[in-house]
Amino acid sequence: MRYAVEAVRIVKKYVTKKRKGFFKSETEVVEALKGISFKIRYGEIVGLLGPNGAGKTTTIKIVSTLLLPDSGKVFIDGVEAFKNLSYVREKIGIMLTVEKGFFPKLTGRENLIYFGTLYGLERKLLEKRVNYLLDLLELKELGGSDKLYEEFSLGMKARLAFARALLKDPPIILLDEPTLGLDPVSARKIRRIVKDLAHKEGKAVLYTTHNMFEAEIVCDRILLINKGVIVSEGTPEELKNKIPKLKVIRAVLHGGNMEKLSKLISSSLNLKPEIKIVERGLEVKLAIKNPEEILNDLLKIFNLANVDVVSLNIEEPSLEDVFIYFAKGVIE
């Protein structure tokens, strides 16, 4: 099978200076990627999910040929990327950040025409494509077509950056946290278009995010990355099934003392609760295999601690629990 994207044992290191005192520094080597490998098919959205500094942006830059790996290979549409740069870059559309690269004194339309011209698109085709993308991302409706870029809201800037990534109608799309900091309406619009591009038009999408909710609703498969290593991969459901079959008891309580409650639960049930202050009082979270077996004892503890139960739910593990399990080896 010819994959849209195939990364093979990619390694990338950065050399930085670590300050020691006021006048001295020492060289430090940071290994951003530690031999990661993955494949992406046409027609699917693959999420690269991880915290800040996990290696997501470095991966995107290497796959797009903007950054050379120290070792390893990248294949785009079956072709070795760094030996066929012109061919590969025609196949890829990339959105790295919302704001970089646009001209503040040009309108949204003028910016897209400028970049389309750089991409070598013929004039009539370019005008048609620009009009289509302005309509698709509702920039005409928002006034962004004829408004100067410096007057754009963050949501409009994100839509324009996404439009630029789609100018060439590329079969492979690389999106680096495309909804970061956006209002819910703009974020929802971008997610819906991404899903249509993959599932209706057959494009391959690599989608980086640290948002668990977003990864679960957008991505067909997820690569969990932490400290430069892919710690697990699969569909959201497959990932959930890989961790121990623990369920989560989540209770919201009114009144009581956090420290006293934690000690009571730990000593009585031999479990370590996660307790935090929320708007309605205290939230207690416990991970356990058979929560039904301890519910009565837990309610007695709440009564002993002189707290009122506002709500109590038993939940299946979330994608966040999965990530914590694989990244740290525990469910919090």
Task: Give a structural overview.
The protein is of the alpha/beta class and 332 residues long. The chain has two domains: 5-241, Rossmann fold (3-Layer(aba) Sandwich), CATH 3.40.50; 244-316, Alpha-Beta Plaits (2-Layer Sandwich). Helices cover 34% and strands 31% of the residues. The chain is built from eleven helices and 14 strands. A six-stranded mixed β-sheet has the order 6-7-8-3-9-10, with helices on both faces. Strands 2-1-4-5 form a four-stranded antiparallel β-sheet, with helices on one face. Strands 12-13-11-14 form a four-stranded antiparallel β-sheet, with no helix packed on it. α3 (108-118) packs across α4. The longest helix has 16 residues, at 184-199.
Strand and helix layout:
Blueprint: E1 5-20, E2 24-40, E3 45-49, H1 56-63, E4 71-76, E5 79-80, H2 85-91, E6 92-95, H3 108-118, H4 123-136, H5 154-165, E7 172-176, H6 184-199, E8 204-209, H7 212-218, E9 221-226, E10 229-234, H8 236-242, E11 247-254, H9 258-269, E12 274-278, E13 281-288, H10 295-304, E14 308-315, H11 319-328
Parallel strand pairs: 3-8, 3-9, 6-7, 7-8
Antiparallel strand pairs: 1-2, 1-4, 4-5, 9-10, 11-13, 11-14, 12-13
Helix pairs in contact: 3-4, 9-10
